[in-house]
Design brief:
The protein is an alpha/beta fold. It is built from 13 helices and 15 strands. The protein has helices at about 1-25, 40-55, 80-90, 100-115, 145-160, 170-185, 205-215, 225-240, 240-245, 260, 280-295, 300-320, 325-335; strands at about 25-35, 60, 65-70, 95, 120, 140, 165-170, 190-200, 220-225, 245-250, 270, 340, 345, 355-365, 365-375. Strands 7, 8, 9, 10, 11, 12, 13, 14 and 15 form a nine-stranded mixed sheet that branches. Helix 10 links the parallel strand 10 and strand 11 (about 270). Helix 3 (about 80-90) packs parallel to helix 4. About 50% of the residues are buried. It binds P-hydroxybenzoic acid (PHB). P-hydroxybenzoic acid (PHB) binds near residues 100, 123, 125, 126 and 252. P-hydroxybenzoic acid binds near residues 124 and 145.
C-alpha cells in the first residue's frame, strides 16, 4: 500500500513537473524557410509577417514568450529531412513553421508526424499534406496548390478562351496548380492542349517560349514564383508573346515581384486569396503596420506568415499557453475563424483554408482586386485519415 502511495505520489509529481515545463519559459518556434535561392524573398516575407503578429501581441502568444530558431532550407528537398531534424532534435522546438517549397514541406510533414510536433505551413501548397497525410497537428495558413489554379481555370473559361497551354516547374506545386487550372478550365468548355515543364529552379525559358509561339494557344497559364517569376514574366514580354497570347497564372506569378518585373507585368490577370488593395480596416491596418516595421510593402507571403502566427495564437490562447494540452491547441486552431488581412477564413477538417479566391490585375506595384473569382473555395482533398 505504502509503495503504491509513494508510486502514485511520484507519478503525480512527475505529471505536475511535466505540465509545468509546458507553461513556463518561452515557446520555441522553429522557422524552416528558404533564405537563399529563388524563393529567398518569400521566406523573408513569411518570417517578417509571423514576427509582426507576435510583436503586435506584445511578444507573447497565449501568455508565453516566443523564442525563434531558424534554418535555411534552400528549397532543397534532398536536405529537408536533415534540416527539419535540426529543429526537432537539436533545438527541440515546440512548433515548426515552414515552408515555401512543396517538396521540402512534404518531408517536414513526415518528420512532424513521426515526432508528433506541431506544424504550421505558411505557404507550400502540396495537396497531400492536407489530403492523405493530414493529421490533427498540421495546419496550413496559406492555400492548396489546386485552389488558385482552379480559380484561374474558371476565369479563363469565362473569358472565352478555348485552347490553353501551361508552363511550370516540374515538381509537386507545378503539377498540382496545373491540375487545378485544367479542371476549372474544362468546366467552362476549355481544353489544355499542352503542358510544358522545366526542372526547378531553372529559368532557361527560351526553347519553351518558342514552342508556345509555334502552337499559338488562346491563353497561357504559368506557375512560377519569386526570382523565377520575375525572369519568366520578363522573358514572355521580351519574346513579344504578351502582345498576342494572354498570360495568366496563380497570383504567385506577380506577388512580391512587380517592382522587379516592371512594365512586363502590367495588366496581368491572376487569381489568389489576397489582393494588395483590399480596402478593409483589417488589411489597411496590417499593410500600414508591416510597412512601418519593415520599410517595404506586404505581399501574400507576409499575410500567410502573419496568419500562421494568428493560428498558433488561437491554439495557445485556448490552452492558456499550456502546450501539453495538445488536443485543446489543435482543436482551437481548426475551429478558429482567422481574421486575416485577406478577409476572414476558416480551416477545413483536413487543415486547409477555406477561402475566397480573387481575380486581380497588376497595376503599378500592386495586384489590384477586380472581383471574387470563386467564393469560399475548399480544396477537394479526400482520403484524410486523422
Ligand atoms: C510550393 O512549392 O508549394 C509553392 C512555392 C511558391 C509559391 C507557391 C507554392 O509561391
Amino acid at each position: 500500500m505504502n509503495t503504491l502511495k509513494t508510486l502514485s505520489a511520484t507519478l503525480l509529481l512527475g505529471l505536475a513537473a511535466g505540465a509545468q515545463a509546458q507553461t513556463a519559459g518561452p515557446i520555441k518556434v522553429g522557422l524552416m524557410l528558404p533564405y537563399t535561392g529563388t524563393y529567398a524573398a518569400l521566406g523573408n516575407m513569411i518570417e517578417n509577417g509571423f514576427k509582426l503578429y507576435v510583436q503586435e501581441q506584445g511578444g507573447k502568444l497565449g501568455g508565453r514568450e516566443i523564442q525563434y530558431f531558424k534554418v535555411d532550407d534552400e528549397s532543397e528537398p534532398s536536405k529537408a529531412t536533415d534540416n527539419v531534424n535540426k529543429l526537432i532534435k537539436r533545438d527541440q522546438v515546440d512548433v515548426l513553421v515552414g515552408t515555401v517549397h512543396s517538396g521540402v514541406a512534404l518531408a517536414m510533414a513526415k518528420a512532424a508526424k513521426e515526432s508528433n510536433t506541431l506544424l504550421i505551413i505558411p505557404n507550400a501548397g502540396a495537396g497531400a499534406i492536407t489530403g492523405p497525410m493530414c493529421g490533427p497537428n498540421i495546419v496550413r495558413s496559406s492555400f492548396s496548390n489546386w485552389q488558385p489554379g482552379y480559380a484561374m481555370g474558371v476565369v479563363a473559361g469565362q473569358r472565352g478562351h478555348k485552347r490553353a497551354m501551361t508552363i511550370t516547374w516540374n515538381y509537386a506545386a507545378g503539377a498540382e496548380t496545373v491540375k487545378g487550372f485544367t479542371e476549372g478550365f474544362q468546366k467552362g468548355g476549355g481544353k489544355v492542349v499542352k503542358d510544358l515543364t522545366l526542372p526547378f529552379p531553372n529559368v532557361e525559358f527560351q526553347a519553351l517560349l518558342t514552342e508556345i509561339a509555334a502552337q499559338k494557344p488562346d491563353a497561357v497559364y504559368a506557375f512560377f514564383a519569386g526570382g523565377g517569376a520575375v525572369k519568366f514574366v520578363k522573358d514572355y514580354a521580351a519574346a513579344g508573346l504578351n502582345k498576342s497570347i494572354p498570360l495568366y497564372g496563380p497570383g504567385f506569378l506577380t506577388d512580391g515581384t512587380l517592382e522587379a518585373q516592371g512594365p512586363s507585368a502590367q495588366g496581368l490577370l491572376t487569381t489568389l486569396h489576397y489582393a494588395d488593395n483590399l480596402d478593409t480596416p483589417r488589411n489597411n491596418a496590417f499593410r500600414k503596420s508591416f510597412a512601418l516595421a519593415y520599410k517595404t510593402n506586404a505581399d501574400v507571403y507576409a499575410v500567410q506568415g502573419y496568419d500562421a502566427a494568428q493560428l498558433l495564437g488561437a491554439g495557445l490562447a485556448a490552452a492558456k499557453g499550456d502546450l501539453s494540452k495538445r488536443d485543446v491547441v489543435t482543436a482551437a486552431m481548426r475551429k478558429t475563424v482567422v481574421d486575416s488581412p485577406r478577409g476572414k477564413f476558416t480551416i477545413s477538417p483536413a487543415g486547409n483554408p477555406v477561402q475566397d479566391m480573387y481575380l486581380r490585375e497588376a497595376k503599378g506595384v500592386n495586384n489590384e482586386f477586380k472581383s471574387v473569382a470563386v467564393k469560399a473555395l475548399a480544396d477537394p482533398a479526400q482520403g484524410c485519415k486523422m
